[in-house]
Amino acid sequence: MCETVNMQWAERFFIFPEAVENAVITLSLTELCQPAAAEHLLGTYASMLGTENKRLAAAILCTWIAGICGAKAALLTAGHPMASALCRSNMSVQLLRTEGYPEFAFPIHDQREGIYARTGKGNEFIDELGLFYKNEVSPVIAALAEASQTKAVMLWKQLYSQLYTFMEEEAQDAASECRRAQIAEQFKTVTWALKPEDFGLRSNPFRIIPRFRTDPSPPHHTISIKATCCLAYQLRADQFYCSSCPILPAE
Question: What tens digit of pLDDT does each residue of 113-126 get?
Answer without folding.
Answer: 665 555 445 588 99
